[in-house]
Amino acid sequence: MGITLVTAAIGAFCGALFAFVVSQLNERVKRNRKRWTEHYNGLIELELIFNSILGVVGDNRALFNKFIKSYNDSNSRKTVFWNEPNRIPYDSSILNHFLDIELKNKLFSFGEKIRKYNHDIETVWQGYLEMRNSFLKKDITDEQYKISLKEYINGLAFLDKGCNLLDDRTIELHAYTRMAIKKDKEKNKGLFYYLPRASQLGSKELDDEMNLLKLEIKEVQTKSRNEIDTYLGKIL
Q1: 158 — phi, psi (to 5°)?
Q2: Of 181, 189, 193, the residue nearest 99 (C-alpha)
């Protein structure tokens, strides 16, 4: 009788323990799957962010080159510029979405570069804006404005070099993100896939994806220029 009760108690305890362990594992899997979904959706959002950054960088480069050319072609050196350079869009909070530790480190470094670059844009523009307003109000002489304008053009040349660096870094991270999305589409990854991890991407894979992305960007740019030329040909 006593042994039967002990056996029953042990059986009940083991059953309850097993049910508890299974329940905890199930909850862990659910949490990890939810975390992976957030990671994957973050990768998709990151692609859109990189596309936006490349667009803004391209717009700024065109603006800088236009200003510099206008200045060099001007005999009076009293050109007044009205278009303000765009700031690079980036929200560092997106880092919280990802499981890939290497990607998080890359994005943190990338975000710091953008923050500093935007600060440089602000510094160059505000310095010129102050002098431009003073010139229009006749608070400074033509000669003083010419000196200020030359400094502004030098600042734009500096920012243009930054565009090239940002362009290259954005393309690299964009290619990395596209490869990560392809990897994450694979099935049967197992439980440990949903945990924080190091990168699973090889350098050759990344180089190939970068070259492919550059070709796609070039094709889009060529198509866009052809469409603009065709439109202008119809209205001019």
Answers
A1: -65, -45
A2: 193
Q: pLDDT of 150-175, one tens digit each?
A: 899 999 999 999 998 899 999 999 99
Distance between CA atoms of 114 and 88, rounded to whole angstroms? 7
* SS3 readout for the chain: CHHHHHHHHHHHHHHHHHHHHHHHHHHHHHHHHHHHHHHHHHHHHHHHHHHHHHHHHHHHHHHHHHHHHHHHHCCCCCCCCCCCCCCCCCCHHHHHHCCEHHHHHHHHHHHHHHHHHHHHHHHHHHHHHHHHHHHHCCCCCHHHHHHHHHHHHHHHHHHHHHHHHHHHHHHHHHHHHHHHHHHHCCCCCCHHHHCCECCCCCHHHHHHHHHHHHHHHHHHHHHHHHHHHHHHHHHC
Q: Which two tokens stand for residue 166?
A: 């940002």
List the one residue out of 228, 178, 171 whose CA is nearest residue 201: 178
Query: pLDDT by residue (tens digit) across 6-52?
Result: 566 566 656 655 565 555 555 665 666 677 778 888 888 999 999 99
How many Å apart are CA 181 and CA 144, to the nearest integer? 54
The radius of gyration of the chain's CA atoms, rounded to the nearest angstrom, is 28
Prediction pTM value: 0.74
What residue spans define the domains of the chain? 2-201
Quote the CA–CA distance of 159 and 75 in Å, as a whole number.
24
